[in-house]
Amino acid sequence: MPFTASEKIWMDGEFVDWDKAQIHVLTHSLHYGSGVFEGIRAYPTSAGVAIFRLTEHIARLFTSAKVLMIDIPYSPEQLVEVTKELVAVNALDEGCYIRPIAYLGYGEMGLNPLPCPVNVSIAAWPWGTYLGDEGVANGIRLKVSSWQRHDSNAVPTAAKATGMYINSSLAKVEALKAGYDEAVLLAPDGRVSECTGENLFIVRGGRIFTPPTSESGALAGITQASVTTIATDLGYEVVNEALIRTDLYTADEAFLTGTAAEVVPIREVDDRTVGVGRPGPITKQIQQTYFAAVRGEVDRYKDWLEHVR
Ligand code: PPE
């Protein structure tokens, strides 16, 4: 996904020019993958640009930091305010993607992270559909990866930590080189975990299933939680249940969720057509409601929006 640069990036307390937002080559997190980060989206609404579930995303950043014993030198409230200011300073009125990161900086080397300085930065830029407009409209093709999702006793799958994304990148490249749009990762026990940067849902017999994040090693997605609320409010039963790969092949419908990806239908898994090979009615209903909710068009979900001005 190419960048459209914006004007300013917030770095350790200051707004700096986009091109000047640089770090030293001996930054600890560059060598050891020891950072934690978030992905957040802001959308245009009739009352101005609003950030979707900002407070929850910042809370998850602090949870990830806690797991990695990274002591963020700001409060969650401060980072919420700074994020709003950043969107305003860059005049990103049409919406944007926001990337906060807390990382271990320059000053110490070696595997002990504890003496390292903690740096925090937040960038925001306009970002189109993550898996393509065509995928959002007509569905994408998935491949079960030969790479396994992490065991939660090998790395903390409950944290959104930078180094852990090697696993996702390997799976993504494998899938793309084989001609698919995205990969599904299986947990060490063989159950379905998630995609490289998205949670998974299937629809079967009118009920909706998504793997429990704790057992499957998937990230507890904020979009996953939002979609669960939306689906429940639409009258569907949403079940947190372990899935195996054939559940994906035989589902009536399937879709994935994530901040960057949003809600994307799945039309094929491992060359098996899912349902009729087009986005199903329940998927479309949930997708439409999600797109309306993030743009402030659904009253009952207005609490999810945090306005910038
Ligand atoms: N699983 C993983 C592994 C993951 O990275 C994400 C977000 C999700 C599930 C969905 O979580 P949520 O965004 O809270 O619904 N992935 C972020 C990073 C994508 C990237 O390219 O980097 C995102 O969507 O912002």
Write the layout of secondary structure elements.
Layout: E1 8-11, E2 14-17, H1 28-32, E3 36-37, E4 40-43, E5 50-52, H2 54-67, H3 76-89, E6 96-104, E7 118-125, H4 133-138, E8 140-148, H5 165-177, E9 182-186, E10 192-195, E11 199-204, E12 207-210, H6 213-216, H7 222-233, E13 238-240, H8 245-250, E14 253-258, E15 262-269, E16 272-273, H9 281-294, E17 305-307
Parallel strand pairs: 8-9, 8-15, 12-13
Antiparallel strand pairs: 1-2, 1-7, 3-6, 4-5, 4-6, 5-17, 6-7, 9-10, 11-12, 11-14, 14-15, 15-16
Helix pairs in contact: 2-3
Task: Please write the CATH class name of the largest domain.
Answer: Alpha Beta
Q: How much of the polypeptide forms β-strand, as a percent range?
A: 25-35%
CATH architecture of the largest domain: Alpha-Beta Barrel
Helix and strand pattern: EEHEEEHHEEHEHEEEEHHEHEEEHE
- Identify the CATH homologous superfamily of the largest domain: D-amino Acid Aminotransferase, subunit A, domain 2
Class inferred from helices and paired strands: alpha+beta
Radius of gyration: 19 Å
Q: Percent of residues in helical segments? A: 25-40%
- Anisotropy-based shape: globular
**Main sheet specs:** 9 strands, mixed
Which stretches are low in confidence, meaning pLDDT under 50 for 5 or more residues running? none
Discrete helix count: 9
> What number of domains?
2
Identify the bound ligands. Answer: ligand PPE
Total count of strands: 17
Instruction: State the separation between the terminal residues, measured CA to CA.
Output: 28 Å
Query: Per CATH, what is the topology of the largest domain?
Result: D-amino Acid Aminotransferase, Chain A, domain 2
